[in-house]
Amino acid sequence: MGAFAYVAPQSVDDVVAALGAADRAQVIAGGTDLLVQMRSVDREPRTIVDIKSLAETNRLDIGDDEVYVGAAVSSALMNENEALCNLLPGVTEAGDLIGSTQIQGRATICGNLCNASPAGDSIPALIAAGAICDIANANGGRELPVDEFVTGVGTNALEPGEFLLGVKIPRPAAHSRDAYLRFIPRTEMDIAVAGCGVSVTLDDDGTCTAARVAIGAVAPTAILVPAAADALIGGKLDEAALQAAGEACTAASSPITDKRGTAEYRRKVVAVLCRRAAEIAGQRARGA
Amino acid sequence: MAKVHVTSRINGQTQEFLCEPNQTILEVLRDELGLTGTKEGCATGDCGACSVLVDGRLICSCLMLGAEAAGKDIETIEGVAGEELHPVQTAILEHAALQCGICTPGIVVAAKALLEKHPDPDETTIRYWLAGNLCRCTGYDKIIRAVQDAAKTLAHPA
Ligand SMILES: Cc1cc2nc3c(=O)[nH]c(=O)nc-3n(C[C@H](O)[C@H](O)[C@H](O)COP(=O)(O)OP(=O)(O)OC[C@H]3O[C@@H](n4cnc5c(N)ncnc54)[C@H](O)[C@@H]3O)c2cc1C
Ligand code: FES
Ligand code: FES
Fold first, then answer.
1. CATH class of segment(s) B4-79
2. pLDDT per residue as tens digits for the range A30-42
3. ipTM of this complex prediction, to 2 decimal places
4. Residue A1 forms contact with B (CB below 8 Å)
């Protein structure tokens, strides 16, 4: 039997060392999943490694080419950043859906991603936005597209001794914007029955030249749906294109039935969410 | 289990404490420091009874470790009233916006934080801001009216 320990390293190397030193070490970011789990399903002792003392994880930068959101940045902090909300309204609105004001004061989108719940709200939004995981390790780090990061229910691609430093999101060009919608039985404080993130790029005539569509809570992991994007690309996001994109989402989903909704219902709802999110992303892109 | 030695500022005063590495700041406040105004309703982030401010940010103290409080500024319900009650507290009393009172410290802390950020919130803003503060007694309406009233008092002090 080990014992609980807590460390808050001051450098990336020290975090990596701390993760490698203990029998069992686990990162804490906002703790909004971790502490709930430590009190219920997994009470075993471990070394808790706080990653919030690093300059790197506290970065929230809007660069010319990319937006960087460090792994310690809370969703409240993201949503207070007007420039970020204008550039990536889909990603920030996903963060704004996570829990209450209190939860958002601590919860991070990187923690949402690492926790890898099938219903994690920021995951489809990050996939749609084309985010890249910036992973730290003892060998100088590596990068991985978000859609390859989550490997199953509650599992991710991090190897022992690795942690997520932050996510890099390509800075949306002119006429390029995103949106995220989820459906829950209540209006606040619930888990998605289905979710859909869409990002679109339009040309000067309003023709869609690029798109990414990702769905959540309707499969073991959030997934990219290239067929839905293909349905949007080349047209003006008209009714037929939106309909086809929605149908592609239904076809790509493999949902379960639980107390929040039946599989059949989820397949139907994900199509509606896709149509609406694509429409919202389109409106935003026209104005951007 | 090696205890963690922590120094933080609690309601404006520097405070040192020892805590277990897995002890929450809520447990530290209540069990180590005797600040029992902050309540535990669920311990899973759902009810908001444990609301406190950390560096000015509203959070659930049941989902933060005591060890994470090192170097932080923490404000609890005990720090809300000065010589007199805060306008949010007065309004809650005047509107009878409490019955059993278990949710009240969390609601006061959360509502005060709301009014510091949005001095003139509409009803929707108040309801969304307080969506993480559950109350089993009042039916919420009186709480909303109290917060609206407190906003007016803060904007036009008598
Ligand atoms: C009341 C309540 C309501 C909620 N509502 C929602 C909701 O509506 N939608 C939703 O999607 N989620 C919701 N959640 C879940 C949770 O808040 C989110 O998943 C949140 O984004 C997790 O982020 P965190 O920073 O708190 O993660 P933590 O709890 O700190 O970490 C989560 C997991 O990821 C690991 N981890 C975290 N950061 C890193 C990193 N940088 N590198 C490696 N591993 C890491 C941790 O070890 C842990 O296993 C809710 C939780 C509560 C308590
Ligand atoms: S006790 Fe912390 S939210 Fe309920
Ligand atoms: S007054 Fe009893 S829970 Fe709110």
1. alpha beta
2. 999 999 999 999 9
3. 0.96
4. no
